[in-house]
Amino acid sequence: MDIVLVHELWSDGSSWLRVIAGLRALGHSPVAAQLGLESFDDDVASVRRTLATVAGPVLLVGWSYGGAVIGEAARDASNVKALAYVAAFAPAEGESVSELSRRRPGSLIPQHVVVAGDYTYIDRAHFGEVIAAELPAESAAIGASVQKLTRIGLDRTAVGRPAWLDLPSHYLLTTADRAVPPALQREMADRMGAAVTEIDSSHAPVLTRPNEVAAFLDKACASA
């Protein structure tokens, strides 16, 4: 099964590099989509373009905001056979990422998001604390320095009928997450009927626990 990976806000496809290495070691040939982070619809279109380059069958994977994107992009994509969510948002029809993010307390993003004109980023001094608490300080500083600016309002788009209503879903729940509260993750995974795997990780296991993320995705492929 082919694997297509979709990143979160304030990042790009290279955030999956270590997971890709782990997946390749397990015999997979994953592809990472590149989101523009200018509009939700453009990001969905970008994933669909990437899906068109992969014959399939496909496990479509979303991290954080990427979860909302895959739920939309996989609709009517015949080569997508299963979905996997990594600490990801999974809005139901009519919901948005922004709405879901306010449903449960515990996220540090509101305290540390910085507005720069029409764009946002995470305060570089607090990037590690918010996104990847396990990273060494120097690695967190590097992660903070390569953030991709995200257009304001991108996360306010209400989604249509999500593909998780029709496809098997798998959820990697990060129990030490300070960006997407674990209680919110559990609520979304439960209503999807997703197969849940818990990991003692911050919001960015793709950076801090890549081999475990790769193993989770390998298992999802095997059961699809």
Unreliable spans are none
Q: Tell me which oligomeric state these chains represent.
A: single chain
- The percent range for strand residues is 15-25%
What is the 3D shape? globular
Distance between the termini: 9 Å
Order of the strands making up the biggest sheet: 2-1-3-4-8-9
- Rg, please? 16 Å
Short description:
By secondary structure, this protein is an alpha/beta fold. 37% of the residues lie in helices and 18% in strands. Helix 1 packs across helix 10 and helix 2 (40-51) crosses helix 3.
Give an overview in words:
Helix 8 (182-192) links the parallel strand 8 and strand 9. The strands form 2 sheets. The protein has a 6-stranded parallel β-sheet with strand order 2-1-3-4-8-9, sandwiched between helices. A 3-stranded antiparallel β-sheet has the order 5-6-7. Helix 1 packs across helix 10 and helix 2 (40-51) packs across helix 3. It has 10 helices and 9 strands. It is globular. 37% of the residues lie in helices and 18% in strands. The mean pLDDT is 96. It has helices at residues 17-25, 40-51, 65-73, 97-101, 109-112, 127-131, 137-145, 182-192, 205-208, 210-223, and strands at 2-6, 31-32, 58-63, 80-86, 113-116, 119-122, 150-151, 169-174, 195-199. It is α/β, with parallel strands linked by helices and 224 residues long.
